[in-house]
Design brief:
The complex is a heterotrimer of chains A (about 300), B (about 250) and C (about 290). Chain A is about 75% helix and about 0% strand. Chain A has about 300 residues and is mainly alpha-helical. Chain A has a two-stranded antiparallel ribbon with strand order 1-2. In chain A, helix 2 runs antiparallel to helix 10, helix 2 crosses helix 13 and helix 7 crosses helix 8. The radius of gyration of chain A is 19 Å and the shape is globular. Chain A starts with a helix and ends in a 7-residue tail after the last helix. Chain B contains nine helices and ten strands. The radius of gyration of chain B is 18 Å and the shape is globular. The longest helix of chain B has 16 residues. With about 250 residues, chain B is of the alpha/beta class. Chain B folds into two domains: about 160 residues, 3-Layer(aba) Sandwich (Rossmann fold); about 70 residues. In chain B, the strands form two sheets. Chain B has a six-stranded mixed sheet, sandwiched between helices. A four-stranded antiparallel sheet of chain B has the order 2-1-4-5, with helices on one face. Chain C has a two-stranded antiparallel sheet. Chain C is mainly alpha-helical and about 290 residues long. The chains are: A mainly alpha (about 300), B alpha/beta (about 250), C mainly alpha (about 290). At the A-B interface, helix 8 and helix 9 of A face helix 2, helix 3 and helix 5 of B.
């Protein structure tokens, strides 16, 4: 239990800071967006940090969740919470559909996953599906608009996800996943159920992004397909996680806090300059610190949350 | 400690007529042998003669095109490597394959938990002690040298409580002191009732473990019997001299 | 309709093969997916645009200039990035991510330098008017682009199979370890292959304004998917399979555009996924790439 204290402390601090900011700070959308990126970075961490699969098309789950939520509200007249259930179901269904991709290794998985996200986007945005999805013309969910409630939902999801990542990090399950990442054959010879655990991590990750997408749709309430399938969601989640350090709890938090903060300082007015900075950051990281900022500490034997 | 079974009991491992092709190349061309609990069988032969392929078929990495492997009286066909681990078959690898980012202790603990379904700390510490790894237990496995990684491979295999252990060239790269303790360890395992199938190039090392060997060449057995007699067998001599000449 | 789609598809196929060739060469030699490939194509297109509008240079003259210039620029880039990466433990994934970073840098710099406006070259800068192919009339500028692609691929084939350098390159593609053991200078071959891969991207870029429409700094990312689709349909790591991949993709795309135009954009994505899952070694290939 004592080993868990730093992790739990960090999680509690993050949640408290976000809550305080939400109630004290005027730019409530900014706080909400931070929360969403904390979720996406940790969700990506669950699959990349613990299995080594880098899902370039992570945004596919986010968009699927957003549209799952929107369809439930538009066509079924759902209340927000059941609609979030459908958002999660959409993400899980897509995740299950894509489990065969886990047979691919490294770059092949990343690219196939990117193509899959593009394909989902092109189906949803297709004018031929206008009666169902409103196609490229976007959806409006003004009837359920509730910024405070949706923020609290995001906060609850973040809390849940932080719990899952702590469990993965400190429990036998995360250890088994890392073993699979290091050497799948050895893992099988150690009796570890390789396929089952990989699929589990994949679905956890997909569900997190889909629920985040649903909550995002709820919060902004008017959006277009390209809003919620914007590749930047994948890219940001990847960069934040890599920057801080995957397979830790604090790495993705650190990455999202610093880089999304930077983005809001300079990125919104001149996005190209921000893109240039994070492009250069990635190159520098891969050359000099491939396991992220925190590896400076962990390599010296410090135990960081 | 279980005493070796009486000769009347069925063999633990029965291998019959294994054939394995890779493209047009016949890696195994009708391999058959049996192994009893507590027995050590050596598998020798030149590179590419099918020794490691035999281990890979028994441990379930490849399915054979023909032939059968029976373990404890039951066929293994269609079982995944992991299912075979749970039946009591495990192995080491020619070049060791540790979980590099995990600590030595975590390597063994995972195998004990998932493969042996008993991760009692005393058992893990005893295994680490027995394999001479206790000093490095908290270090990442990536930092071990080759000899230590080979012992870790073996510790992980033993953590799953195998009744049959497949050992692939464990002696290569060990220093004389390590060879000594490895031979003692393997002999003790066999004395405890574990069956061992040992692929080995170092015949001196093998000779300290067992008298019984199979010599393979081009996917076939060309000799089965006592190690000492193998060196007097004309075909064995031809195969080994041929290999020496090619080098 | 069908013949028209086929004729257009063949012409496009040759061009798509050129789009993927450099990507595949770099992968074949170094086992590295150059995610910046699409952005290098975009830079080639920008170069052609400015050479035409500022210097009055026809794309046919710009082509060798851009290819040569890109080759020379690629060498220092190789020296700065790759030796360090190739030595790392997880070289494949590291380099994939690194090239993703490079892609972002190129895209950002291009956006800063060129702005978001769409740029195009008039067809007459290459060749005006139609040409008859399979009894169908096809724009001459398409046919010229395809012809350049065929010539470039032909030259590539000849040098791969009939020169010493080509022989060494094939040896490295078959097995880097054995090639190195027999005295081949791996880093020299890799550097040249990388340079050629970048040069081929630049060359493909010069003709992009005619084949792909207007040029913007953001076009690189989607070009990557197209190039990757052509490459995996052929066979990843076997550059000549790319020709086959390009033709399949080109004909497939034009057929889709003719008969299911609303869904045509799905083609590269679905093709990519299907091939990776069901024929991971490509329709022609032999090399399996699964976890």
């Amino acid at each position: 239990m004592r080993r868990l204290l730093p992790d739990l402390g960090l999680a509690a601090f993050l949640l408290a800071a976000l809550t305080a900011a939400e109630f004290l700070y005027r730019n409530e959308l900014l706080v909400f967006n931070f929360t969403i990126f904390f979720i996406l970075a940790q969700g990506l961490n669950a699959i990349y940090g613990f299995t080594g699969y880098l899902p370039f098309g992570y945004v596919g789950f986010f968009g699927a969740g957003a549209y799952g939520f929107a369809l439930a509200v538009m066509h079924l007249g759902s209340a927000p919470l059941p609609a979030l259930g459908l958002a999660g179901a959409a993400g899980l269904a897509l995740g299950l559909l894509l489990t065969p991709l886990l047979r691919l290794s490294g770059a092949y998985f990343a690219i196939a996953n990117l193509a899959a996200a593009q394909a989902v986007y092109q189906v949803i945005a297709n004018p031929a599906l206008e009666p169902l999805t409103r196609g490229p013309y976007g959806v409006s969910l003004a009837s359920v608009f509730a910024p405070r409630a949706s923020f609290l939902a995001a906060l609850a999801l973040l809390a849940l996800l932080l719990g899952v990542v702590i469990w993965l990090r400190r429990g036998e399950m995360g250890l088994a996943l890392k073993a699979i990442r290091d050497d799948p054959l050895s893992a099988a010879m150690a009796g570890i159920p390789v396929v089952r655990l990989r699929v589990l991590a994949w679905l956890v990750s997909a569900l997190a992004a889909a629920l985040a997408g649903g909550i995002y749709a709820w919060h902004i309430s008017v959006f277009y397909p390209e809003t919620v399938f914007d590749l930047s969601f994948s890219v940001f989640a990847i960069v934040f996680t890599l920057f801080g350090g995957a397979a830790t709890l604090s790495g993705p938090i650190l990455g999202a806090a610093l880089l999304y903060g930077l983005y809001n300082l300079i990125g919104i007015t001149v996005p190209q300059y921000f893109q240039l900075i994070y492009g250069a950051l990635i190159v520098a990281l891969m050359l000099f610190l491939p396991r992220g900022l925190l590896s400076l500490l962990t390599d010296r034997g410090h135990d960081v949350p | 400690m279980t005493s070796p079974e009486p000769p009347a009991a069925p063999p633990l491992l029965e291998v019959r007529g294994l054939v394995k092709r890779f493209g047009g190349f016949r890696a195994l061309d009708g391999v058959s042998f049996t192994l009893r609990a507590g027995e050590i069988l050596g598998l020798v032969g030149p590179n590419g003669s099918g020794k490691t392929t035999t281990l890979n078929v028994i441990s379930g990495l490849y399915a054979p095109e023909a032939g059968e492997v029976r373990f404890a009286g039951r066929p293994l066909r269609g079982l995944s490597p992991r299912a075979r681990v749970h039946r009591g078959i495990n192995r080491t690898f020619q070049s060791p394959r540790p979980f590099a980012s995990l600590s030595v202790r975590e390597n063994v603990r995972l195998a004990a938990r998932f493969g042996g379904r008993d991760a009692a700390p005393e058992r893990i510490e005893a295994l680490l002690e027995r394999l001479g790894l206790a000093r490095w237990a908290a270090r990442p496995a990536a930092e071990l040298n080759t000899g230590q990684q080979k012992r870790l491979d073996l510790a992980r295999a033993l953590a799953t409580r195998p009744r049959l252990l497949l050992v692939d060239e464990i002696a290569a790269g060990l220093n004389p002191a390590e060879l000594e303790s490895m031979a003692e360890l393997l002999a003790a395992l066999a004395a405890g009732g574990t069956a061992l199938l040992v692929v080995e190039h170092l015949l001196g090392f093998l000779g300290r473990l067992t008298e019984r060997v199979i010599v393979m060449n081009a996917g076939r057995e060309i000799f089965e019997g006592r190690l000492a007699e193998a060196s007097r067998d004309a075909e064995v001599v031809r195969v080994f001299l041929g290999e020496a000449a090619r080098r | 309709m069908l013949l028209h789609a086929l004729a257009g598809g063949l012409v496009y196929g040759c061009y798509f093969a050129l789009l993927g060739l450099g990507l595949n060469l770099v992968f074949g030699v170094m086992r590295i997916v150059n995610l910046a490939h699409g952005d290098l194509i975009m830079l080639g297109a920008m170069a052609a645009y400015f050479l035409y509008h500022l210097a009055g240079l026809s794309p046919l003259w710009a082509a060798p200039l851009v290819a040569g210039g890109f080759f020379l620029l690629a060498l220092p880039l190789y020296a700065a990035l790759l030796p360090r990466l190739l030595a790392a433990r997880e070289a494949e994934m590291l380099s994939f991510t690194l090239f993703f970073g490079l892609q972002q840098i190129i895209e950002a710099l291009a956006a800063i330098a060129f702005g978001p406006s769409e740029r195009s070259l008039p067809a007459r800068s290459l060749a005006a008017g139609p040409i008859v192919l399979l009894g169908q009339s096809v724009p001459k500028s398409w046919a010229f682009s395809a012809l350049v692609a065929v010539i470039a691929i032909g030259l590539f084939y000849l040098s791969l199979h009939h020169t010493r350098l080509g022989l060494f390159t094939r040896a490295v593609m078959a097995s880097p370890e054995e090639a190195a053991a027999s005295g081949i200078d791996l880093s020299r071959i890799s550097a040249i292959a990388f340079g050629l891969g970048v040069a081929l991207a630049g060359l493909a870029g010069v003709f992009a304004p005619f084949m792909l429409g207007s040029v913007t700094p953001a076009m690189g990312a989607s070009l990557n998917l197209v190039a990757f689709a052509t490459v995996v349909v052929g066979s990843l790591g076997a550059p000549l399979g790319t020709i086959f991949g390009g033709l399949v993709y080109g004909v497939g795309l034009l057929l889709m555009q003719t008969y299911f135009s609303t869904w045509a954009d799905l083609l590269p994505d679905l093709l990519l996924i299907a091939i990776l899952l069901f024929r991971p070694s490509g329709l022609l290939g032999r090399r399996l790439r699964v976890a």
